[in-house]
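Researcher: I'd like a candidate sequence for this fold, 392 residues long. If you have to choose between options at a position, lean toward the conservative one.
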């Protein structure tokens, strides 16, 4: 099959719509269930490239949670601590495979953004991963294969309409790619440059020490950025992206947005948040919303007018700004990647507030000296990669 008709394009009024291969070549995918749409395939193909690269770079199973052609989360399959199992709502699932751990991390880092995601898996989907996906609100999944039992579990989602795509893991696209905008065809070489530890060799700060674990996190951040709508910044820690700022017009806004998401990830691990007592009937999505409000500036909305009674068993104590700052001050060892150079030291100042100790960015700003000086002030190790990662 070299063509697949879609229901519509980005929006329902954009018809006709299809995906196809030129010159009579076969599509490298097979739809095993459901009817994926235009945006589903955009997420699936970008997400698949991301997880395939993550596995090559780290040697571990990888997963990503995509929304609207940018990742909400990306991770490799490191084991989960009890704390992470609890905040990702997977502590009741028993033993988790490395692939399941990867998806738990990718989905769990920013559960608000991952709601209704499209999932990409680097490895054959196994039963533990399928069981995790089964109970999340998601549009579909792409993987190089599915265990028979896992496939049946996934087919039961959304009353049998869940989108399941199998992709040929050996497929390599043509080196030249094309895209049309306003009836005009753009042509460019595909971004096939390999991201690896060699890109972290040029450390320009006084602190030259980037341990192997931090290098792995920097690779995760950079590969994630390669498939994130520019401008973009990614914070990573412990084998996963913990905050992604995508599609902003200024770099400081990327850094702030991603930093706020990273802060929220860490605040959810604070004992005061983990000890919140929810009523039994509340859904996971409503718990996520309540936690987001509780740790954010709108926490009074949760407590006001008795609204808390629809969420919590007992009225939670106010999580003060001072308490939150004190907890965030214990956040350490975070890595940060940027898809283009930092033009000012203010980005470093913001990153430092979220525990960033390692940075990888292209360099090349006329104010590189100011950025390096700011890193030196906080003992941050920063590598210049010389690689711009714009994705549009």
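Model: Candidate sequence:
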């Amino acid at each position: 099959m070299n063509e697949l008709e879609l229901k519509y394009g980005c929006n329902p009024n954009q018809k006709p719509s299809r995906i196809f291969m030129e010159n009579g070549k076969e599509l490298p995918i097979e739809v095993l269930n459901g009817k994926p749409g235009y945006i589903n395939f955009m997420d699936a193909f970008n997400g698949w490239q991301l997880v395939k690269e993550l596995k090559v770079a780290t040697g571990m199973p990888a997963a990503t949670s995509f929304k609207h052609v940018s990742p909400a989360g990306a991770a490799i399959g490191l084991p989960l601590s009890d704390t992470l199992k609890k905040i990702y709502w997977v502590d009741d699932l028993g033993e988790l495979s490395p692939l399941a751990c990867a998806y738990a991390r990718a989905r769990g880092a920013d559960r608000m953004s991952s709601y209704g995601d499209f999932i990409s898996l680097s490895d054959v989907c196994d039963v533990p991963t399928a069981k995790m996906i089964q109970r999340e609100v998601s549009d579909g999944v792409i993987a190089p294969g599915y265990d028979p039992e896992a496939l049946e579990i996934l087919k039961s989602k959304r009353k049998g309409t869940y989108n399941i795509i199998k992709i040929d893991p050996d497929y390599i696209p043509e080196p030249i790619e094309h895209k049309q905008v306003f009836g005009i065809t753009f042509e460019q070489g595909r971004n096939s440059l390999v991201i690896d530890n060699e890109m972290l060799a040029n450390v320009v700060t006084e602190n030259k020490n980037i341990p192997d674990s931090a290098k792995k996190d920097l690779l995760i951040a950079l590969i994630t950025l390669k498939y994130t709508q520019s401008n973009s910044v990614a914070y990573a820690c412990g084998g996963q992206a913990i905050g992604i700022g995508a599609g902003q017009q200024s770099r400081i806004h990327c850094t702030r947005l991603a930093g706020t998401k990273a802060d929220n990830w860490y605040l959810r691990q604070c004992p005061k948040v983990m000890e919140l007592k929810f009523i039994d009937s509340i859904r996971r999505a409503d718990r996520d919303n309540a936690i987001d409000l509780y740790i954010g500036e709108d926490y009074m909305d949760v407590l006001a007018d008795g609204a808390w009674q629809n969420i919590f068993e007992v009225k939670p104590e106010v999580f003060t700004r001072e308490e939150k700052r004190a907890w965030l001050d214990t956040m350490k060892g975070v890595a940060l990647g940027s898809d283009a150079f930092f033009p000012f030291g203010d980005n470093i100042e913001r990153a430092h507030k979220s525990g960033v100790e390692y940075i990888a960015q292209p360099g090349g700003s006329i104010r590189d000296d100011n950025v390096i000086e700011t890193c030196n002030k906080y003992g941050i190790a920063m590598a210049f990669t010389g690689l711009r990662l714009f994705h549009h």
